[in-house]
Design a protein that fits this description.
11-stranded mixed beta sheet, magnesium, 8 helices, binds magnesium ion, FAD:protein FMN transferase, 368 residues, 3-stranded antiparallel beta sheet, binds flavin-adenine dinucleotide, ApbE-like_sf, cell inner membrane, alpha+beta, membrane
């Protein structure tokens, strides 16, 4: 429901800006595109002394914003390439598109292996690696539980325990068989269901960054619905400022700022997709052991890493693991840092973020 509202608001926004009207160039004509997309907004930034060209789209059921910092306006063609790349991955990975490769794998569960493109094979391999690393707190075979709860859809409801038990029995990443020679994927039980929603945006962001660099741009910000990936450093500045959303604010205000360069920041929290019943909030981060949305001391978590696919998988994994085990996991990994926001409004950061996080909302408390 919330997602529907967001789509509506975004479309109205684009329309009010005139970007969905008939005045577009051929490349950006909304009639030819399966998704909403803005034209460029261009501004000269005094602090960076660069021209910032920004375009937005609505893809992956979220708002995508790309800002390129360069000497002059970045041409439409670079944004065409980026949004086409996202559309290509969406067609490959989406569990909601019936002929995507992921849907083909799901339809063939218990039946036959499916041959997939290298990209998807690698992504599934990485998903399994993170499932192992988090001892199953992160599990890309979570689909039967996600389908049952329906969080983010009109059908969201608390399931019967018999339904939960049945779905739980179909969630186990050990039953995903990868053949590294033939690049096939096999879910070895009927009704298993892959869901790459917790890792794919990070992977796609990394691919967008590679494309931007390949095209010769060295400074940019990629934002896939709050998954932020920096390309290079902020020109003429010490750092990019990335706002950390206050999980208790409906309007999306920031409670603090991370000051970083060439990093990825991915957040997961109870505010993203949820419904409430009898005063209980049921959000979309599901514990694969209990089958329920994970209820712990956390409201949200942000992961800072070099590569966004790592941050995306870890943000979900660490949320489900909770502060203690999550902190331990993050500390065991090189180049990965975390920020935990607890329901008692304490914020915990790992050592590498101490000098990089600035709290701006003093109703929260920074503890170490
Ligand atoms: P994250 O924390 O990164 O991921 C949470 C999501 O991962 C949950 O929504 C669930 O799907 C899954 N998950 C929950 N618990 C676990 C767990 N323990 N381990 C592993 N995974 C878990 N949304 C739509 O509403 N409609 C669409 O058509 C649609 N298409 C999409 C297509 C693609 C290719 C992608 C990448 C996303 C799409 N989405 C769509 C959004 C998607 O369903 C997720 O809601 C979104 O990716 C979650 O990202 P997040 O950053 O909010 O949370
Ligand atoms: Mg994630």
């Amino acid at each position: 429901m919330k997602e529907m509202k967001r789509i509506g608001i975004f479309l109205v926004l684009l329309m009010s800006l005139g970007v969905l009207s008939g005045c577009q160039t051929k490349e950006t004509s909304s009639e030819e595109l399966p998704y909403a997309r803005s034209e460029s907004s261009v501004r000269k930034d005094k602090t960076t002394d660069r021209t910032i060209t920004t375009q937005e789209s609505y893809q992956l059921a979220t708002r995508i914003t790309i800002s390129i910092y360069d000497e002059k306006e970045a041409p439409n063609s670079i944004f065409d390439a980026i949004f086409d790349l996202i559309a290509g991955y969406e067609d490959m990975i989406s569990r909601n598109i019936t002929d995507s490769y992921v849907s083909r794998i799901n339809q063939a569960a218990g039946d036959a292996p499916v041959s997939v493109p290298d990209d998807l094979f690698n992504l599934i391999h990485q998903g399994i690696t993170y499932a192992d690393l988090s001892q199953g707190a992160f599990d890309i075979s979570i689909g039967p539980l996600v389908n049952l709860w329906g969080i983010g859809t009109y059908e969201a409801k608390v399931p019967e325990s018999s339904e939960l038990e049945k779905a739980l029995s179909k969630v186990d990443y050990h039953k995903i068989e990868l053949d590294y020679d033939t690049k096939t994927v096999f879910l070895n039980e009927k009704d298993m269901f892959l869901d790459l929603g917790a890792i794919a945006k990070g992977y796609i962001a990394d691919e967008i960054k590679a494309l931007i660099l390949e095209k010769g741009y060295t400074n940019a910000i990629i934002n896939l619905g709050g998954n932020v990936l920096m390309v290079g450093n902020k020109p003429n500045s010490d750092y990019w400022s990335v706002g950390i959303r206050d999980p208790l604010s409906d309007s999306g205000t920031s409670l603090g700022i991370l000051e970083l360069n060439d990093n990825s920041v991915v957040s997961s929290g109870v505010y993203e997709r949820f419904f409430e019943e009898n005063g209980v909030r049921y959000h979309h981060l599901i514990n694969p052991n209990t089958g329920y949305p994970e209820q712990n001391d956390l409201l949200a978590i942000s992961i800072v890493s070099d590569v966004s696919v790592d941050g995306d998988a870890l943000s979900t994994a660490v949320f489900v693991l909770g502060v203690e085990k999550g902190y331990e996991l993050v500390e065991s990994l090189e180049g990965v840092e975390a920020l935990f926001i607890q329901s008692d409004k304490d914020i915990i950061v790992t050592p590498g973020l101490k000098s990089k996080f600035r709290l701006i909302d003093d109703t929260y408390k920074l503890v170490y």
